[in-house]
Fold each of these.
Amino acid sequence: MMPRSGAPGRRRRRYPNLGSPGGPWMVERLRVLIADDEPDVREALAELLAHAPGLEIVGLAADAAEAIDLARAHRPDVALLDVRMPRGGGPRAAREILRRLPTVRIVALSAYGDAGSVLGMLRAGAVGYLPKGSPAEQLLAVLREADGTPGPAELDGWGARFRDEERRAMEDRRWARRIRGTIARGGPAIAYQPIVDLATGGPLGFEALARFPGTPSAPAAWFGAAARVGLLVELELAAVRRALSRLDDLPDDLFLALNASPQTVRAPTFTDTLRNASHPARVVVELTERAEGRDLGAVAGALEELRSEGVRVAIDDLASDRGAFDALALLRPDLVKLDISLVRGIDADPVRGTLVSALASLATAMGAGVIAEGIETAAELRALRGLGVPLGQGFLLGRPRPLRAWVSGRAPAPPAARSPGPAPAQSTGAAGSPGPDPARSTGAAGSPGPAPAPPASVARAAGTVSSGFTRYQARSILPSSSIRNEERRTPTTFFP
């Protein structure tokens, strides 16, 4: 435990020259007094500062009176004072210390919700403030910058900054309550958007998208707030569990893509949730953010464990950044999604088309299927098909909708769609049944089964999809003007 006493007076320590001419030089150690009524806070601050170069702890106080006595005895350079400690609080300690030792610099140590007390300390002579729980870098910066005498304008600026931080903290507390309430109610609503074979118009799977009250940008706001308040993993898990609860309502040859951040993928509860799903082999984990360094290695390890259960992996928003290539190399995804910035207006931008063609070729060579995300016009669709991109997703192909809109009744046609003409016959197995699913086809004792055939969703692309998709014409997912019979290519398999 840090002692509450020390020899008064200033100490100097000689530090070696760091490369500048002139040999060794003298550096004063910044002497710091810490005063807080919470023992854990005192000890944590002392432990942190004890290992910081150029700093020296001269005393620890539990209340205002003890802080005044220790300051008088040890003459610190900086006093870090809790604003609400007993026996007068930080304002009293600040006034008394400065009355006796006007060269001491006072820094207010506050918990969120202490705006009035902090402003009182600034008026009492504090030259800065620090919220409890601040990262070490911020603490050290505040202490080392605690010099000079603030004028009225500086005090007003500090007060305004503190009030801004206090408002942000209050807003985060409101977000935390809303997020916890959503989790307690079983998670956010889920909308399902089709991922389509661009050769046939047939759906291969659906992406589950969380939906919250508010504007279309609400999901970004909710997940951003969850990350700030430490609830990102819990909120994403709630969304994943809700989406998985409808997996059995999809035809058994369609996959379900679930969004997850690297933090969530690394969580053991996420692995357990997917392992306990009714059909893990029909699940695709779509990594929504880039992980770096050791985090990327940890994510790769967690995904390998899921792959042993049959789960597939997708990388979202693939572009030409370094992080994307690192993720491709280490994660070896089964699917990659081209970033919407590459897809938007690709029909009128040859450079963008060249980049998409190169990225798609790279992904295919690595054994990954390629999905163009954000397709909104027939011209973009034609350009992507011309570049050999096999899969697509976007408002042109199908907007996110509740699952009942896809499962019961005819799927709503996209705005640009027109009634398709007769579709060419598709080959099927005996008695019109679809061929085996290559993702799960095995022979006896787990040995490889027959040669892979296209997924049943593609084999039935021109007909009525059964297994719950009542009267759903898969081909009608694309405008008839976008896919002419003479342009049809070989259907795309689930994964290359």
Amino acid sequence: PVEQEQPKPVEEEKPKPIEEEKPKPVEQEQPKPVEEEKPKPVQEEKREPME
């Protein structure tokens, strides 16, 4: 039984799919363009009451 003596399932022993284990595309998952989503014209709003 040499087959049982030497462990051949080394592929299952060490997980190679590290790319799938850690989600790298986090930039695409969450929309960062919040600056373009909400316009913050605070300068114009503050100018009206000041005048």
Amino acid sequence: MTLVCLIFIVLLKGVYSEMCGGCGGEITNPSPFISHVIHPVARQSATLFLFHETLHLFNQLCFTMSDEVGALVFDFGSHSLRAGFAGEDNPKLDIASLVGLIPSTETKPARRIIGQNIFVPRGGMELQPFLKDGLEPAWNTKNHREKIAEVLFEKFKIPAFYVAKNAALTCFANGRHTGLVLDSGAIHTSAIPVYDGLVLTQEIIRSPLAGDFLLQQTQRLIDELNIDLVPYYKVASKEPVNEREPPKWKKRANLPETTTSYENYMVKNLLQDFVASVLQVSDERYDQSQADTFPMVGYEFPNGCNFDLGHERFQLPEALFDPSILLESGGSSMLSMSHIVASSISLCDIDIRPSLYNNVVVVGGTSLITGFTDRLQRDLNMKTPPSMRLKVNFPSTAAERRYSSWIGGSILGSLGTFQQMWISSNEYNELGKGCVDKKCA
């Protein structure tokens, strides 16, 4: 029997074949099931649509697999959706947490698009985020978890289900049952203590200093430099120009009239590439005179405009570690990376603090910025009590750091004892949604 769960959804082979109305992540003629469940403008319905289509794609793959594979693992985040088979090292699917909504015309019905198809410019297509903060962040409430189970069992008729907190799975992926998980993602950075596999929800500390904040600061710098951000899809050709010279490029012909949401998303992708390519966290507190001694790094924008950046590439990410550098009112009151770690641990019982300091696990896309972990180690050393031993751990590869909670789910879903953990449909029908909180700690 093949099963799927969410962060595990467990499904039988072929269980969805009769209700899948499309393939390849795009539906042109939605089935009655989808038309009934999905409304094109509702966020919850957009989530159901994407989830349904993801299950459809994996349902096709299940026919090529042996019965040894038991679970599908889903990790829904505010930036992307990761999904794959339990027991594998990496997810099979990693797509943006967006649904493209194309309005109907006189000749074509309304369509909904997911995956790589959303990058194609289409007239009138709105890009809508289908969730915020993921389906099961550590601070999710009992009601939210029960609602997820209700939808999956009653709408999707899944045979079994299990949901786990991402911080606990991150610890599991790193060979630990106890630790302090620092997860720096798109919307926020969280310090989440985990003790013996249980997330201590009352001691979680969050900060808005994360990926999206960094993109906002980068956008301001680019505006100050008078750089016109032209997304890749608009550029037909370009000519080489000297540094800081006006670009020479030609716009692609016959482009459809795109929406503001599509334009903003493509610009955001460009900013993310700039951040990953240029920015670096300094080893010590930012000092412009010292930063100017480092070699400049060049970056070429899609339209051919190119700039060499010096101290600016250190100044932007410095706010993650020293919010007082921000000029905005109240900026200095936000919590830095080291501050949220130390604050979260200080809220925990004194007996478990040594274990938390000794097992700080760093994950999340924002933590991939060059120099992030080295600076965190330095700043935490200054905040760690002399009686404590600090050890900062982070996965060795970018994929492991980005997919840490999914990998933990993959490990858990492949264990022989997993059948004792999940909630079966019979169990749900007998005990109701109250069993979710009892079985999924």
Amino acid sequence: MPPHNGQNITNLSGTWVMDKGLSNNLDAVFKLQGISWIIRKVISASTATLKITQGSDEVDDSPTCAPTEWMTLEPALAGGLEGTPEKRLLTWAKFEHNDNLFGRVIIRSHYVSGQRTEDGRVRPLIEPFTKVVSKPDSESILTEAVVLAPDTTGTEVEMDKAFIHDFIRSVYHGWTAEQIWTVEIIEEEPLLTHLHDGDRK
């Protein structure tokens, strides 16, 4: 998705438009998640947008006195099909969300640090929850090093808040999804991207 105003991962507020020319075909993912064939065809034929609002709230009784950071996601398709808005706390706390497309899910989200590789790219410092036997495996997908936007990178080997890490579990349908979000440089343009992997039990 192209940037709204050159944001980095801590400032994504704006409306983002999915570039299908740079995106993988998600039909198999939606099928795994129980989305009907008709809805999948509508998604495939439509322009997808994602309105993001980020912010923070002061918490008086917080042991660290640090504000609680959050982001609100409002997905939509051209033609009027809208997803259910959701507010994700970026604290890794579990919360339940009832989505009109995916049903009831439990979500955890937080910022994660990045580590610079020898070629100057940055990889997320996480231990993936998703375990699959196919190749490439979850660890190689979710910890892939990328070229970050210039205002994200620094001279340090490790940097805070370089990525957002999500873990989502369906309450009724048995699937899980794990994602890494960042603003990376692709063909000299900064784009909001998310690497994802999933499993069905």
